[in-house]
Amino acid sequence: MKNLSFEWLVGLRYTRAGRRSRRNSFISFISLISMAGIALGVAALIIVLSVMNGFQKEVRDRMLSVLPHIEVFDASGVIPDWQATAKAARMHPDVLGAAPYVDAQSMIINGDIMRGTMLRGILPDQEPNVSIVSTKVKAGKLSDLRAGAFNIILGIDLARAMHVGIGDKVTLAAPEGQLTPAGTIPRLKAFTVVAVFEAGHFEFDSGMAFIHLEDAQKFFRQDAPTGVRLRIKDMLKAPHVAYELSQTLGGSLIARDWSQQNSNYFAAVKTEKTMMFIILTLIIAVAAFNLVSTLVMTVTEKYADIAILRTLGASPASIMKIFMIQGGLVGMLGTVFGVLSGVVVALNIDVIVPFIERMLGVQFLPKELYVISNLPSDLHWSDVWTIGGIALLMAFLATIYPSWRAARVKPAEALRYE
């Protein structure tokens, strides 16, 4: 304390609660409210963004249990020599596995029930190289898909909608009909349900089915697979790896990563996160406005003190620095408390939320209504530093006007009635 400049000493003294008058006590109370408001805004912003990141990560992981990280396909619609393409792709250091696939739209029929579905032909023994769909099978086995048997695996919601189970027959209708002397008639084929999977994502559970790759080629009359699916070490690097593969594979081959396949969803999530960030930042802005009023009241209360300091030789810049220190300390303490509380809650939300649910006897995300019944959290430290920096910046900006007003106090006028 002895080595501090007088501006810091006076600023720290003004920050500590003065008890000499009711007005001082009221100003101290307003300062505490401003500090609490900043802390609440910072903590709320950290917690909300962590929960949104958690939901995004949970949904993304469930989507990628079925979707590949990267798809490589030809502009013509088929890849005649998929083995060579897979081998070339595996030469990339980030590629872990490759497997062929056939993708096409189809109509699935059971009696008078019809549903459109995305039909995917796969090789059961190579599918674990690019996805974890085998771990999502709830009944039956992925290996039950055998070439020539015309078996099918349905999403759990699709199976419920079709009222079928293991061993039941369904009929698939190809999008292109069969040309006969009597005209074009639908091309139909009966398949046996041998398994049901649950990815945890409604779009896939209600509209996707798997069959053997050879059966898919026969059914859709293709001479080769649609393309090759790839799995890489870090899914977040998929756009970069896909770009590099597009350059190295050459020809008419196209590499498309998982973010491009679901661009609308991730764009919507990004927009929602941005809007939530802006809305919750307003809480910090309101607290910063409270800090302005607190400092204005402090300046009014300390007119005589300011005049005496000016008379003793303090410059306007020193007076301004005193009140900027006072306001800055309030903002810094509020930010620190907010960051600490927000990080603690975000890291322990899986414990805190169940405790609140047991205490209140409620469930925020009922299993009957929501696929994700627990509240996930994924804390990003980059968000924490950004939020803390914004809070400190707002607190600093809030001190400028009151401090400037204090620096303009004229000693003679301030002491006239003292």
Write the layout of secondary structure elements.
Layout: H1 6-15, H2 22-63, E1 70-74, H3 82-90, E2 95-110, E3 113-122, E4 137-139, E5 151-155, H4 156-162, E6 169-173, E7 178-180, E8 183-185, E9 188-197, H5 202-205, E10 208-212, H6 213-220, E11 227-232, H7 238-249, E12 253-257, H8 258-261, H9 263-301, H10 303-311, H11 316-347, H12 349-360, H13 381-407, H14 411-415
Parallel strand pairs: 3-10, 5-9
Antiparallel strand pairs: 1-11, 1-12, 2-3, 2-6, 2-11, 4-9, 5-10, 6-9, 7-8
Helix pairs in contact: 1-11, 2-9, 2-11, 2-13, 9-11, 9-13, 11-13
Major sheet: 6 strands, mixed, barrel
Structural class, please?
Answer: alpha+beta
Using the alpha-carbon principal axes, give the shape: elongated
* Helix and strand pattern: HHEHEEEEHEEEEHEHEHEHHHHHHH
Ends apart, CA distance between termini: 31 Å
| Beta strand count | 12
The number of distinct structural domains comes to: 2
Binned strand content: 15-25%
| Spatial order of the strands forming the largest sheet | 2-3-10-5-9-6
Radius of gyration: 32 Å
- Portion in helices: 40-55%
Number of helices: 14
Quick check: average pLDDT? Answer: 81
Unreliable segments of 5+ consecutive residues: none
Task: Explain the overall architecture.
The structure is a single chain. By secondary structure, the protein is α+β, with helices and mostly antiparallel strands. The chain folds into two domains: 6-61 and 266-415, no CATH class; 69-261, no CATH class. The protein contains 14 helices and twelve strands. It has a six-stranded mixed β-barrel with strand order 2-3-10-5-9-6. The protein has a two-stranded antiparallel sheet with strand order 7-8. A hairpin with a 2-residue loop joins strand 2 and strand 3 (113-122). The longest helix is centred in the first third of the chain and has 42 residues, at 22-63. It is elongated. The two termini are 31 Å apart.
